[in-house]
Specification:
Blueprint (H helix, E strand, L loop, with lengths): L1 H8 L22 H5 L4 H12 L2 E6 L2 E6 L2 H13 L2 E3 L3 H7 L9 H12 L4 H5 L2 H20 L4 E2 H18 L5 H18 L11 H28 L8 H7 L10 H32 L1 H11 L2 H18 L5 E6 L4 E3 L2 E3 L4 E5 H7 L36 H16 L4 E5 L7 E3 L3 E3 L4 E6 L6
Parallel strand pairs: 2-8
Antiparallel strand pairs: 1-2, 3-5, 4-12, 5-8, 6-7, 9-12, 10-11
């Protein structure tokens, strides 16, 4: 009784208990392989949360680490990160490939400055201005899918969503002005570059994925530098604001008049195209999978999209539940600074590694998401009814989330419309997700598709 009284008197967020004993996992490695395996990035978090509780200690990447799951504990962690020094943690080869000026790998005041500058290019108004470019990329994707359907081919929908998201991102970057060859060349090099992010860091072997990624990065830089120079010349000539993401990044200035230099623009273009295209492709692939597995839900959503007053709310709720059940970004890591953190009633020690366990939260927190195993879009109505960690949180919430959602909405509206297409999954395929790094079915979501037809209106 005395303990209860003591706890009641303590302020919210106070430290009331030490961290639980360390879960050792493998010798030296701890849970590194489980957390980083493409097959178990999410299930590892769910299993540990169910057996050890929402916060547990282990070793990751040869460091003592604390994994945090649960919406309340993640909120504490995000709040602490906003107030105390913490450092982004990435393997060295990813830092090299992203670039030293990427807002993803920077921390503290430098990260905040980069985020303010990059964020100017991704405001709701800026994303809305990209609608025509996004629609053109959607039409290209749907036409390609229907062409394959006409050839009676089995379509790997995951591949098509990857292609769409990457090409849409490039077209938004260039303002829809890039010719097809330029877009295709950038897409090919960005694909090679992205593969290097999750490959062994064998830069010294010319034929390795890491070395090919570095060569692709140099080609991307060589293509973007003259375009940035042209944007600056256009600005100096007083030709007005640019409709392209590249132009807006070039024009961005903070309150002190600081702007991004060429290397900073290129590093953050790579960051945005990687994060945005991978998240968008992952979410769209998961959307098509969930709709194929639930015909009644698909019919309900198709009907909702015919009602202008209901369409956006229904689609946003559906996408939020897709991202919850199929988290495109399962975790993030931080190095704690010289101050201890108060997280979920525990003390997380200074200089330790801490993990934002997004997948463990979205898939296992029954308090925040009642009946978490059920696919239930109604849990998101009204908007904000449930905490959404699919795009991260705190000072490092994904800056491109509005663009990713705009692209996803546009494609699903087109596919589910009266002139879109239907799809039926090939029997016997493996639908279990693998992170590469976004979440995609092992067999790439193989389907046979057909034109919906205006007659079905």
């Amino acid at each position: 009784m005395a303990l209860v009284s003591l706890m009641a008197m303590m302020p919210a967020g106070a430290i009331i208990k030490p961290l639980p004993p360390r879960h050792h996992g493998l010798p030296i490695l701890g849970d590194t392989l489980s957390l980083l395996s493409p097959k178990t990035m999410a299930s590892y978090q769910v299993d540990r949360a169910n057996t050890l509780g929402p916060v547990w200690c282990t070793r990751l990447l040869f460091k003592d680490a604390v994994v945090v799951t649960g919406a309340d504990a993640l909120s504490d962690l995000a709040k602490e990160e906003g107030q105390k020094p913490m450092t982004a943690f990435f393997p060295p080869q990813q830092k090299v490939l992203f670039g030293s000026a990427s807002l993803l790998v920077n921390s503290g005041p430098r990260h905040s400055q980069l985020r303010r500058l990059v964020g100017q290019s991704l405001t709701p108004a800026a994303v809305k201005a990209c609608a025509a470019t996004i629609d053109a990329a959607v039409e290209e994707c749907v036409a390609r899918c229907l062409q394959q359907a006409g050839d009676e081919r089995v379509v790997a929908l995951a591949d098509e969503m990857r292609r769409f998201a990457l090409r849409a991102g490039i077209q938004v970057l260039l303002g829809g002005d890039g010719d097809s060859e330029e877009v295709a060349n950038l897409a090919a090099d960005l694909k090679l570059w992205g593969e290097g992010l999750v490959a062994p860091p064998l830069f010294f072997l010319p034929w390795s994925s890491a070395a090919r990624a570095m060569r692709a990065r140099r080609r991307i830089k060589a293509r973007l530098e003259p375009l940035i120079t042209a944007e600056r010349a256009r600005m100096h000539a007083g030709s007005g604001s640019s409709s392209s993401l590249l132009g807006r990044l070039t024009a961005a200035k903070d309150d002190d008049g600081n702007a991004l230099n060429t290397d900073e623009i290129i590093d953050n273009v790579l960051t945005l195209l990687f994060a945005g295209s991978d998240t968008t492709a992952s979410g769209l692939t998961s959307s098509l999978k969930e709709l194929a597995l639930a015909p009644a839900l698909q019919a309900q959503l198709r009907q909702a999209l015919r009602d202008a007053d209901e369409a956006d709310e229904a689609l946003d709720a559906f996408l939020a539940e897709v991202h919850r059940r199929n988290p495109p970004a399962p975790f993030q890591m931080r190095l704690v600074g010289k101050e201890d953190l108060a997280v979920g009633g525990y003390k997380v020690s200074a200089n330790s590694l801490v993990v934002y366990g997004y997948a463990g939260t979205l898939l296992a927190d029954a308090k925040a998401y009642p009946d978490p195993d059920a696919f239930d879009p109604s849990r998101w109505k009204p908007q904000g009814a449930a905490p959404n960690w699919a795009f991260g949180g705190g000072p490092r919430m994904c800056p491109g989330r509005m663009l990713a959602l705009a692209e996803s909405r546009a494609l699903l509206k087109r596919v589910l419309g009266t002139n879109g297409f239907t799809w039926h999954l090939v029997d016997g395929q493996d639908l279990q997700g693998r992170y590469s790094p976004g979440l995609f079915p092992a067999d790439r979501l193989l389907a046979r598709i057909a034109h919906t037809g205006a007659a079905n209106e």
